[in-house]
Amino acid sequence: MVAKGKKASADAVYAKKTTRSANPFDNSTAQSSKRGNPFDVHVNKEKFKILGRICKHDRGMPGVSRAKALQKRAQTLGQQFAVKHKTNRFKDNRIGKHLSGDQLTESVMNARYLAEKMSQVRSNQKAEKFNLNDDELLTHRGQTLEEIEQYRDERSDDEELDDEALDADFTAAAHFGGEGDSAQDRQAAIDEMIVEQKRRKNEIAKEKDEVYDLTEKLDANYKLLLPLVAKVTKDEQDAKPPPDAYDKLLKEMIFEPRGSVADKLINPDELAKQEAARLEKLENERLRRMRADGEEDEEASVAKPKHRSADDLDDGYFLAGEDDEGDDTLAYDLDGNLGTHLNGKKEAVLKGDENEDDDDKEGEEEEEEDSDEESDSEVDNLSDLKESESESEPEEAPKASKKKAKKSADTIPASLDTSIPFTIKMPKTYEDFTELLSKHATAQKAIIIERIIKCNHPKLEGVNRENVVKLYSFLLQYLKDLFEDASEQDIREHFQLLSKLMPYLYELTQLNPERMSNTLLEVIKEKYEEFRKNHKMYPSLDTLVYFKLVANLYSTSDFRHPVVTPCFIFIQHVLSRSRVRTRQEISMGLFLVTVVLEFVSQSKRLVPAVFNFLQGIVHMSIPKRDVEQLEITPPFERDGPLSKLLALPANTESTKLEPQQLQPTDLVTQTITPDFKVRALDTSLLLIKEALQLVEEHVGACYLAQPFLALLSRLPLESYPEHVHQHHKDATELAEKLAAQKMKPLAPAEKKPKALRLLEPRFEAVYDDKRRPKMSKAKEERAKLLHKIKREKKGAIREIRRDTSFVQMLRLKQTLQSDKERHEKVKRIYQEASVQQGELNELSRAKKKKKF
């Protein structure tokens, strides 16, 4: 129910809908300013309707656009045209107008004054060009020069004032008796005057001495004061800020020496061709010298003149060298004796034989000295692997004489052939390769390998590229044969050969990395299969040499490597499974530990087998009773004779041994000696220190260092020399330092806020009916840019034309306005003149009336 006197909501809505106003203009809406006049709209019709084309100029309002353009030009060009040639605005163009009062230095004031005078001269150049009456007052800091100048006559301190000696008081007292009651004697007055004069002279001399001393002191410190006096000026009173990094770098670049012009870099292909051509040329010369072909012809051609005329004076007769045998021309010799050439030749031959005998004796002595020096330097000179040997041979070969070659052939054994060819063909079989190397010494084997590589370089034309792969396989097999059955006498020589061949193995690896790596990897796989058959025995020595090759030829810091990673696993299996019972096995284990530490020197990885092996070596160096056991991990034994294999007996005196490293003979010797025990423990201590330094930054370094402390504390150092004590102290201190470190508590890793997913916009080419030629991307961009420039240029020309018409219209309006004002002035002048003429006529008529 609805309350009485109230209408329902439906009735109210119905009444509102049906209510209409009586005024017909109440429902009409006022025309807004945005709607515009429909007659101002201009429609641009298209001939064809094309799908996909968006036309931006289908309709427009030219009247509104024209009005806006005129309004914009009136606000810009109109205002500029209105104030043209008008100077009703003050502009401060003075120098240093932004500086405050403290910053206005004397140089700024002088520059401002000079600029003002120059502007005045330019503005009134014709009027004041020869004006000498310049009535301007010169000022300085607000004061005129007349106020500043006071015409003082200040005398210097050095000038003596003689007139002060006879002042008025002295004259009155000396000549007139003075004004005092007691009269002085004349002699007393003169004495007093002399004393006073001496006192003043002494004071002046003292002052001069002080000034002289100060001057000498300043002269002595002149060099210290010179930078301050020379650099500090009135403009630089304020302290300059220190030069920043950019200024320092700029000065370094200014005074940096310029690079000198270098030769053009040679292409590797051209370099290989040049090297092959050089070796071929040297080989041809060597063969020619060996056969002695063409030497007599060359000497005869040099000595014998090609042509002798009838007027020849024989000036070069005795300078031509050897002459023809049948030449018996009568001539004077150098001593002025008359004779034939045959007599002089016989004497020269006799003298030459004596000289040759002396030279042979001297040559024999020199060769004996050279052979001694070469034998001494073969062991020491191991670093120069490539350049010294390859370059010295070609230089020495041309200088060798026949007799010296014969003498050297007698002194050197017949099994070693010193004549190395410069061009060597690739051996077809491994037997030929070993036969080629067996004829030469260790130092010459590296030269042979170098020349084989250069003569069979893959970049040369007509060379089989498989030759370098075959040479690499031959070298690996040759190293295997050398080290597999090495003895104590030749093991050192084999390692020297390995160090000399290492650069050439690296060069071969770089020529074809994939093939060479696969070849070496197959050899290592074969060695690993042999090791798995009897994993309790250490592999042969050639396997260890292959590991050393891998360390020198490849990057061992990679996380995964096709050659290094298998070697890594192989070494860990050897160290953790093979038994340690002899001197050879201990030396091999320490050699493998050194190689592994070289592997992880950059990556600092953790290798548990290395730490276990080093703990085992220290464990075997501790003397133990039969019932005593120490915890150790296999392959080392807790008790028994092998658990104290490296322990020194109590009665052994080895404290005087000098520090030595492990020798190459240790790798092929089985018996254990006291000096080897000392060297093994000393090497182990050094390796423990190096291994702990590598894992120093690891989280669990404390757990790796704790087992070493218990073993190092049990070592009896009384029987060991001093250097072992020092190495034991260093290793113990480092282990205690790492064992004292505390591990950080585990904490969840900090998660970075997840970035919002960014979607790349997908651009779609808009189709239009315009056919364009196919162009590259760069040409297409250039064409678009040229088209845009053309459109902008047309628009700029159109705007300039409209601006010109607008300015012409303003000038026309200004001209019309001035003409209108002039016409009004002329009209007003005529009007005033006509009024004046009327009054004048009226006066003249009045005068005529008075006359009559």
Report what the structure shows.
Among the domains are: 418-511; 515-624 and 632-646 and 675-696. Helix 19 runs parallel beside helix 21 and helix 24 packs antiparallel against helix 25 (722-739). The strands form three sheets. A two-stranded antiparallel sheet has the order 1-2. The chain has a two-stranded antiparallel ribbon with strand order 3-4. The protein has a two-stranded antiparallel sheet with strand order 5-6. It is extended and about 180 Å long. It is 56% helix and 2% strand. Strand 5 and strand 6 (338-340) form a beta hairpin. The chain is mostly helical and 852 residues long. The termini are far apart. Keywords: Coiled coil, Nucleus, Ribosome biogenesis, rRNA processing. Residues 344-353 have a biased composition (Basic and acidic residues).
Index terms:
two-stranded antiparallel sheet, 852 residues, 26 helices, extended
Widest sheet: strand ordering: 1-2
Gap from first CA to last CA: 123 Å
Number of strands: 6
Spatial extent as radius of gyration: 57 Å
**Portion of residues in helices?**
55-70%
- The portion of residues forming beta strands comes to under 5%
Mean pLDDT: 76
Largest sheet: 2 strands, antiparallel
Tally of alpha and pi helices: 26
**Structural class assignment:** mainly alpha
Low-confidence stretches: 1-6, 317-330, 344-418
Shape: extended
